[in-house]
Amino acid sequence: MELRYWLENMRQHRYSSQEAAAATGLSSAAVRRLLEALPASPAGEPGRDAGGRIRVLPYPGGRHPRIGFLDGAIEPQRDTKVSVFCPWEDGGYVVIDLPEALWRDGAGKPELMYLAHTHIPTVWDRSNTALEPLDWVRQTEGVLESRRRLPDGVEFGARVVPGKEFIALELWLKNGRSTGLSGLRSQVCVMLKGAPDFNAQTLDNKVEKGLLIATGSADSSRWVLTLWQRARSWGNKRVPCMHSDPVFPDLAPGQEARLRGRLWFYQGDDLEGELERRLGEWKAAGEE
């Protein structure tokens, strides 16, 4: 049953049989036979599920989610990655890494306590401690949840709730150590390779406004936008990606903090009005 789920997931991502084989460990021929036996995908609005919500799926791996800067993301893990499908015909999808990285204060300098790919060694890499791979827990109505406990007792997790207007995001961190945690910051990367309207390797299509960052299509008629509480926004043209990276408060032993974010799409010619409207909604909801 799980294999059937992942094959349908890859079909939604429009994987080739070779990509699906790389993700499952099966042969390309076996993948083709299994895909042919699957029932037709349900019809509906582009990028939306049967309930009209923006479609969100766990990212299946087997295809690198970046165009460039690949040496900065070797062996990307699917543990923390979710795909959010654009609500337009052939719009593709963006991949949120939730989180891509988590940092804390160490012995006089920042320490990387989690990274969703291989690049900079984490504290666990340095002690030759392997972290087991995890998958998102799939709940009803498309909700996805994750939870990981690190070897020192620190726990973190995420929640992704698809809606008709936006994706609600949550990232939480709990200090299970006997000493305090400080300098807690995260990277939440929105990778744009899979969305043809938005994957130009440039910063010219990015607009930042406080906590919020948006990436526009070539004609600036469509936008993908994201923001987080306590965040710093920036973009990387090589990947290409955009970030609104939430920063956690210091945590005493036993303390937990939760930060919230959103991702959504906009089509129209009044981006400034959209930014003001959404930031106003965010403020009214007490999410600053």
**Distance between the amino and carboxyl termini:** 42 Å
Number of domains: 2
Q: Report the order of strands and helices.
A: HHHEEEEHEEEEEEEEEEEH
Identify the CATH class of the largest domain.
Mainly Beta
By secondary-structure content and strand pairing, the structural class works out as alpha+beta
Instruction: Report strand %.
Output: 25-35%
Uncertain runs are none
Count of discrete alpha- or pi-helical segments spanning 4 or more residues: 5
Biggest sheet descriptor: 8 strands, antiparallel
Mean pLDDT: 94
Share of helical residues:
10-25%
Strand order of the largest sheet: 5-6-7-8-15-12-11-10
Shape: globular
Rg over alpha carbons: 19 Å
By CATH, the architecture of the largest domain is named: Distorted Sandwich
**Count of individual beta strands:** 15
Task: State the CATH topology of the largest domain.
Answer: Beta-galactosidase, Chain A, domain 5
Quick tags:
single chain, 288 residues, alpha+beta, Beta-galactosidase, Chain A, domain 5, 2 domains, eight-stranded antiparallel β-sheet, seven-stranded antiparallel β-sheet, 5 helices, 15 strands, 34% strand, globular
